[in-house]
Specification:
By secondary structure, this protein is mainly alpha-helical. About 60% of the residues lie in helices and about 0% in strands.
């Protein structure tokens, strides 16, 4: 087996960044989770601005301790900023509000409920008639299914 050369690695990395390449890009954009984000966007931007202002040794550590976050979280915030997910305001998809009942809608609902009750009564009557027919056919020993003699 041969080891991959630097050219092979460069070609592989170039392939991941080519738009229109049929191979999917495995890189996950941080901050875009279906489960939401733990930290609000404004908090992330504030922490990043304060971290960028730190220029003395130990200042970032104090900032992280006071904010209650780890260096990995700060790194994640920086990746999100580099990916551009912190720049654009996040839009939330909202569920459509239920339609309000207007007098016409209320009238239509009442009409449909009346029709539903009427159809349920008719169904109960039809089922009762079918049950009676089955009992009568058992009493008279009449088969309700077509006989084989009639088909010949």
């Amino acid at each position: 087996m041969s080891t991959p050369s630097a050219d092979d690695n460069q070609q592989a990395s170039d392939r991941l960044n080519i738009p229109g390449d049929p191979t999917p890009n495995p890189q996950v954009i941080p901050g875009n989770s279906e489960f939401g984000n733990r930290y609000p966007r404004a908090f992330k931007i504030k922490i990043l601005q304060e971290a960028d202002a730190c220029n003395q040794p130990g200042q970032i550590g104090k900032l992280l301790k006071s904010a209650g976050i780890t260096h990995a979280t700060l790194t994640s915030f920086r990746r999100q900023r580099a990916a551009g997910t912190l720049d654009a305001p996040q839009t939330k998809t909202r569920k459509q509000a239920p339609a309000t009942l207007t007098p016409q809608n209320t009238e239509r609902v009442l009409q449909l409920e009346r029709e539903n009750r009427k159809l349920k009564r008719r169904l109960e009557q039809a089922e009762a008639i079918i049950d009676i027919q089955k009992k009568v056919s058992r009493l008279l020993e009449i088969s309700l299914e077509p006989s084989e003699e009639g088909n010949k």
